[in-house]
Hints:
Blueprint: H1 2-27, H2 32-42, H3 48-60, H4 63-84, H5 89-117, H6 134-151, H7 157-180, H8 186-209, H9 216-229
Amino acid sequence: MRRDYSIIWGLLVFCIVGFYSLSLFIADHSIDGFDRLAATWVQSVQSDRLNQLAAVLASAGAPRTGVKLAAGLAISGIGMVFCLRRQQFRTLAPQFIIIAVVNIASFYSNFWLKHFFHRLRPTDHILSYSFPSGHAMASFAFYVTAAYLLWGNIPSKAGRVIMAVACSLLTLLIGLSRIYLNDHYASDILGGYFVAGGILLVTVLLFRWRKWHLPHSQQRITEETQKSATPT
């Protein structure tokens, strides 16, 4: 348990330092060379099929799409658990709440951060600000959070690995699609990942502190320990 907390705190510090460093590099334009290099590499291969794929990926990572999916999943999931498995309500319901909280917090924090940094886009056809990327934050908030929550509910190790790789790859591809379409700089994507990752980690820490979220395996271990400690 202590090792888990150490990992979470370490990742949270990494996200905070990473985002703060990015904001400094953007302010003094020292990261412009990296952004140009990344854009040149990603946009070097273009085709009609890739354009269509990038558009589909952009739709899958749209901020409003993530919020709607997360809210719908949370409401339907909580209702299903309450109606069908009331004895597991206190264990499973917080998992649906977590994904809704992370996505809503990411959506509004992205709006505030964009208006704080006022970074212009690499293109003129989008009027909103660029840093951090809303699509990067939304995709990380939904797909990576879903992977974290599903991890403890998939019995086989191979299934967990496949699910985690699929969610991570989809999140990465959505970020690359924004660079491919010239809607964002690469540093915008990294900044979005850092912020969404930080929000997810803070949410997990809060739920663990309140003991609202225990994976199934951990819950069984806790219950067995309590039974064995009870005098007969």
